[in-house]
Amino acid sequence: MHNDATMNTKQQTAYFTRAYAKINLTLDVLGKRPDGYHELATVMQAIDLSDTICLTETGDDQIHLTCTQEVLNTPGNLVVRAADVVRRRVGWRGGVHIELDKRIPFAAGLGGGSSDAAAVLMALQRWQGFTLAPAELLEMAASLGSDVPFFLHGGLALCEGRGERVTPLVPYWPASMRWLLLLKPAIGLSTPAVFRLVTPVDYTDGSHSRAVCDALASMCPPDPVHLHNSLEHIVLENYPDVALAYEAMRQAGAPIVRLCGSGPTLYAPFAELSLAQHTCDALQAQGFEVYVTRPV
Ligand code: C5P
Predict the structure, then answer these.
(1) Which residue of 36, 180, 215, 226 has the fewest C-beta atoms within 10 A of its own C-beta?
(2) H helices of the chain, where?
(3) pLDDT tens for residues 211-261?
């Protein structure tokens, strides 16, 4: 999953790692919890759209960040918080410069920030030779965000609880969904803002996620009816830019269009690259930000 590499130069060792995005095949919101989070069942798949992270040692005892997206260049960035969590846990006093080449659209429902955090947790450990038990790593990941534990595994997984309880699934992916066309509408959405709009009528009993897990375990394509995201109609109804993008994807020939996480990114599965690319070109010509990608 994380094809890490070290590069030695005369001055310093650079440790490179990659952080992949995800899509949600399902997102069942089961109810609201006393702690304010929502109880979920969601089937997630990592996709071949990634950020690149480079770690280098510094002479001081600080965590420095340089991100290609200026607005993400803040001490609150999850990669800085991830490095801080590791330092506190293992008592490491060294300084690190984190360079983050951001390719995954952010505030997009693609899990980019969470994936970056998971990648830093794992990379620091390997780079500095810290030995953290898997349970410790999982606990640190969950403390950073509900989606972070998924990215310790990547691939295909069922995530439950607030998202942090991860069950890896046998990696089967239907040929009918081999290529994934992503469209990122020109707005960013905040996950808490979307979750605040959820009402009990949006709750499901988790049967969509169960049906998709069962279909994939039997190596069958899931029934599109079960590619259900409880947040999708909320986002489509409240954010006209997303509804417009959804319609544009359907008009351009995408047979199935679904929301990634809490949005606003939409994905459409295709069996053939030529069709995915054709649709991608048509949407790009209309000015949309689009990507053709695949599961990893
Ligand atoms: O866990 P994370 O920090 O990523 O969650 C961000 C916000 O999204 C939470 O504060 C909460 O408002 C919402 N959320 C939720 N239920 C979840 C996950 C996130 O309500 N299972």
Answers:
(1) 36
(2) 78-90, 112-128, 134-144, 148-153, 191-196, 207-217, 232-238, 240-251, 273-285
(3) 999 999 999 999 999 999 999 999 999 999 999 999 999 999 999 999 999
